[in-house]
Design a protein that fits this description.
Keywords: Membrane, Transmembrane, Transmembrane helix. The protein is of the alpha+beta class and 104 residues long. Helix content is 48%, strand content 23%. It has one domain. A 3-stranded antiparallel β-sheet has the order 1-2-3.
Length: 104
């Protein structure tokens, strides 16, 4: 094996290793985002359930900046249903909103 062949083999090996490492990094990022998303859904559900019980959100949810809105639903059964919405802010700045129809 010549020096040139050895260098080409090392370059190919380096490129392959870089591809594998990028895959591991992307997998880790996806796992973190999924964990954040699951926690945000749980925070929004707790906020929504608390709103239905007329309870304020617990202090443990402060990092999610929960907000609640309640307004009449304009669907087919006017005057009998409200839409209750709970919104939380994700760590990356995005928002997650859950909606639930409830009887007045």
């Amino acid at each position: 094996m010549t020096l040139l062949e050895a260098l080409v083999a090392l370059v190919i090996l380096g490129l392959a290793a870089t591809g594998f490492l990028e895959g591991f990094r992307a997998g880790g990022r996806t796992a973190r985002e999924a964990a954040d998303w699951s926690a945000a859904v749980a925070a929004a559900e707790v906020t929504l359930e608390g709103a239905l019980l007329d309870a304020p959100p617990p202090d443990s949810l402060a990092r999610w900046q929960p907000r609640v809105a309640r307004e009449p639903w304009t669907g087919a059964t006017r005057g009998r249903l409200d839409v209750v919405s709970a919104t939380v802010t994700l760590p990356d700045g995005g928002e997650l909103t859950l909606h639930r129809l409830v009887r007045r």
